[in-house]
Each structure stands twice: as structure tokens, then as C-alpha cells.
From TrEMBL:
<dbReference type="InterPro" id="IPR036179">
    <property type="entry name" value="Ig-like_dom_sf"/>
</dbReference>
<dbReference type="InterPro" id="IPR007110">
    <property type="entry name" value="Ig-like_dom"/>
</dbReference>
<dbReference type="InterPro" id="IPR003599">
    <property type="entry name" value="Ig_sub"/>
</dbReference>
<dbReference type="InterPro" id="IPR000483">
    <property type="entry name" value="Cys-rich_flank_reg_C"/>
</dbReference>
<keyword id="KW-0732">Signal</keyword>
<dbReference type="InterPro" id="IPR032675">
    <property type="entry name" value="LRR_dom_sf"/>
</dbReference>
<keyword id="KW-0677">Repeat</keyword>
<protein>
    <submittedName>
        <fullName>Leucine-rich repeats and immunoglobulin-like domains 2</fullName>
    </submittedName>
</protein>
<dbReference type="InterPro" id="IPR001611">
    <property type="entry name" value="Leu-rich_rpt"/>
</dbReference>
<keyword id="KW-1015">Disulfide bond</keyword>
<dbReference type="InterPro" id="IPR003598">
    <property type="entry name" value="Ig_sub2"/>
</dbReference>
<dbReference type="Pfam" id="PF13855">
    <property type="entry name" value="LRR_8"/>
</dbReference>
<dbReference type="Pfam" id="PF00560">
    <property type="entry name" value="LRR_1"/>
</dbReference>
<dbReference type="InterPro" id="IPR003591">
    <property type="entry name" value="Leu-rich_rpt_typical-subtyp"/>
</dbReference>
<feature type="domain" description="Ig-like">
    <location>
        <begin position="343"/>
        <end position="428"/>
    </location>
</feature>
<dbReference type="InterPro" id="IPR013783">
    <property type="entry name" value="Ig-like_fold"/>
</dbReference>
<keyword id="KW-0433">Leucine-rich repeat</keyword>
Amino acid sequence: MNHNELTVLPFLGDVSSNITSLVHNRISELSMHQLQPYVSLESLDLTSNSISELKVGSFPSMQLKYLNLSNNKISVLEPGCFENISSSLLVLKLNRNRLAVLPSKVFKLPQLQFLEMKRNKIKIVDSLTFKGMDSLKSLKMQRNGITKLMDGAFFGLNSIEELELEHNNLTEVNKGWLYGLRMLRILRVSQNAVSIIRPDAWEFCQKLEELDLSFNYLTRLEETAFVGLGLLESLNLGENSISHLGEEVFNGLGSLRTLILQRNKIKSITKKAFEGLEELEHLILNTSSLLCDCHMQWLGPWLTDRPFQHSVSAICAHPASLFGRNVLSISPDEFVCDDFPKPQITSHPETSVALRGNNVTLSCVASSSSDSPMTTAWRKDGEVLYDAELIYTTVLHLLNVNFTDEGRYQCVVSNHFGSNYSNRAKLTVNGRTLISKFGTKTCAVTFCPVFPAVSRKNMLFLGLLDVLYGA
């Protein structure tokens, strides 16, 4: 019945087959009445029709296991529309439709194992959207233009093993939207706009075996980027803008077998960058931007001792005497540090303690033998402070500090030849101390009276502290 001009489901009498295909017709709606003769069906393919919505009662009670509604015009899924097939449905395909909103509780499909919603118009996935799908193994949502995954977006997918989110507009990976994915083995987030991997992102999906973050906007990998992924076997970071591989950046990835770093603009790789990757079998890396000074002397011998010579192309960009040469063809005594074109941190920010409400200044000083302009960014706990108040780029002012300002601060100085990172300075913020006849109290609530002003209101406040903490 494929490729006809059918506008409604035809009545075919007693259906002996458990498979019906009505692909490429003009069917515009589904109703319980039309489907009643087909209650014994196990597979129904309605790809490329004109169905625009699924209402409550679209399906009679039937034993349907496979339902393909791809390439229709569906923009509305009413909660309860799948209720009569929820006890049997295993595979649901809704690709190439017009879905923009996924209502809460629309997917109460406890037996469903495979769900596809590729090429729709979903921009935001709300919390608990997929709750009630305890058996789902695979979810595919490529090419939707998703910009935001709310905390708990996939909570309830207790059995999911594969999540595919390629070709969307996600900007970060965090534990909020990964919450509850304890059985996840494969995560694909390539072709997005990811620039941040939060330090604790993988807390709830530590069984991950394959992670694809290629074609994103990553520029730097923190030491915490992959903490908790001890079972990871394949990591794809190709086609990003990573310029530096720091010490122990892949620390904890003891099971990793494949690491893809192709088409980044890597300028420096520290000697301990690949430390701990004892199971690594495939390293794919190509860069022609390396700063080949004395700190890069180790790379050639390291590659020679491993089976990576044919999959790694490491070409020098500086100094001029080594420009265009592969590190494998350079003798150790040619890697020298006659100059330091990459910024060198000569003064690091210092750990400090401040009272709440005071101002704090952190500074770092960098120098370079190159005339390439230097820029500075400040990070707090590994995250860039985009709205920081800077003076001459290397001084950070924190005004009227609060407890939320506590953390570890670091400056990153960059130029054309690479970046360098200061030591981390820890900032501790203490509450103001109140003194009264009852003794010394430390402010432990949202507001603090300014010492030493003592008024009747302040004495009442002190009395409240006595009640809370004892005199």
C-alpha cells in the first residue's frame, strides 16, 4: 500500500500479516476507529504522510511493537496519545516532524527501548520529560537545534545506554542534564557549541565507554575535564580549538584505547599530558602549530616507543629554524629554550583570606620574548570569569566579596605561541565577628550587622544567635 494517494487508513478486511506499511501516502490523521481492524498488528510504518497531531485515543488497545511516524507534519503530541499501546511498544520513530515542545508525561511508555526524534524543532528539553521510560536503551535527538537541557532532562531513563545529541546548539556539559544516566555507555555530542565541561560533569554517568565531543568550541581542557570516566574506551576531541594539553589532563582514563585529537591547533603538550593512558592503542593527532622549545624534547622519543608514528603528525611552527619539521625528525639537542615566545608567568596570584564585604585584588605578571600581543583571562574553579573587573588585564578586582566568591583563582596569559597558567590562589571569605557581653559570635546568616555598631536591634540579633547556637 506504499506510494498511493490514500488519505485515510483503508479497510482491508481481516489482516493476516502482523506488518503493515503505508509509506508515502496522504493520510492526515490517526483514529481509534480506523485502526480498530488492525489490533493484531505488531509493526506499522506510516512514514511520509501528512499526519499533524497525535491525540488521546489515536490508537485502540493493540499489541503494536514497532511504530514509524517519521517524515510527517506532527507538531502536537497530546499527553496520553500513546496510552493504549504503552504496554507493548518497543520502537518509536518520530524523525523529520515539526515537534517543538515535548509535554510532560507524554512518553509514559514503560516497555519502549528505542526512541528517535531526529530533525524536529525542539529547542529546550525540560526536566523529567522522559520519566516513565524505564526500559529505554537508545535515544536519538540529532539536528533539533537544542540550546538547553534542563537539570534532570533525562531523569528516569534508568536503562539508557546510548544518547545521541549531534548537530544541536548545546554550549556546555554539566551534571545537571546528565543526572540519572548511570547506565549510559555511549554519548555523542559532536557538532554542537560546547565550550565548557564542568568539573563534576560525569558524576552520574561513570559507566561511559564512548564519548564524542568533536566539532565543538573547546579551547582548553581542565585537569577535571574527565574525572570519573575510568571505564571510557574511546574519546573523540577532534575538530575543536584546543591549543594546550596540560599535565594529567587525561588522568584517570586508565581504560582509554582510542584518543582522537585531530584538527586542533595544539601548540604545546606537557610531558605528563598522556600519563596514565596505559591501555592506549590509537592516538590520532595532527598539528602544525607546535612550539618546539626544550619543553617539547620528550615528544619524539615518546612517539617512537609507541605505535603512533603513522597516526600522529606533530609539526613545529617555532622557532624559525625548526619551522615545518616533524618532531620525529629532530634530534634532542635541537630542542632549545633560547627564547620564550610563549608567555611566562613571573608573578603568581597569592592565596588570601578576606572579610565579607571587603575588596580583594589578585594579580599576576607575565613576560614574553615575542612581540605577539598578550591577553589575560581569569578563571575561578576552572571557569572563565567573563564579567570580571580587570585592570591592565593582569589585575582582578573582586568588590564587596561574599561567600559565593570563595574558590581557587587562576590567571591564563596567552599569545600567538600558546598559553600559560598561573598557580591557583585560594580565596577564603570569613563572616564579620560580633562582640557582646554574651561573648564572640560569627555571623552565620544572610545579613551581618556592621561591627562595632551596637544598637537595640543588634542586641536583639545577638539574642537570636544565642537561641540558635547557645549563649
